[in-house]
Amino acid sequence: MSDQKELEKELAAKEAVKSVKQSQIVGLGTGSTAKYVIIELGKMVKDGLKIQCIPTSTKTAELATSYNIPLIDINTVNHIDVTIDGADEFTKEKMLIKGGGGALLREKIVASLTKEEIIIADASKKVDKLGKFTLPIEVIPFALNYVQHQIVSLQGKGKLRMNNNKPFLTDQQNYIIDSDFGLIDNPRVLAEKLNQIEGLVAHGLFIGLAARVIMGVGDSVQVFN
Ligand SMILES: O=C[C@H](O)[C@H](O)[C@H](O)COP(=O)(O)O
Q: Which residues does the Swiss-Prot or TrEMBL record annotate as the active site (predicted)?
């Protein structure tokens, strides 16, 4: 990873945490960009900020705990004030592909409960059309073969994600099919079709969920509202 990309991620994270206010419930994203948010929030909590946070993965929960960031159970809240998360790709219309790290299901649930979902990214994540990054699709193991056939019937090519010669397992003990649909002309239509497939528990198309995308670019940030 280039130093420039890391700087852009950090700048975007520093800009995004300005939206976090005293006493809020905050969703914590997953990945190498969201990590910078946890580091910043850790400093703010140390300086007296009182927040309660909901992590989107066990990895994020561990990292947040290591920075003494208070965590709460998602099932104890009816809304989340603000969530800051990363993305694998985004367009200027704030459509996203997420799930490169396998956290898409929890991320989507957290985003759905969130009033202000802020996405942060380095400049390499911005695309004109989604789909160069293969779309992560989370599937219950029982439905693997069925869902793979459904992906083919939607003109996609799916590949089971592996880890040390075994299927990669999500935090929910599900599989991920990384799916190539080429450049996606209409993400909304594809998302609706994927939503119909039994056994498919989440896909990485996030449409209409992001309130803002903050992109680090060079030594500044650009915001897509
Ligand atoms: O499952 C992982 C998440 O959707 C991440 O936000 C996404 O993969 C981007 O990760 P990174 O910031 O490491 O590129």
A: 107 (proton acceptor)
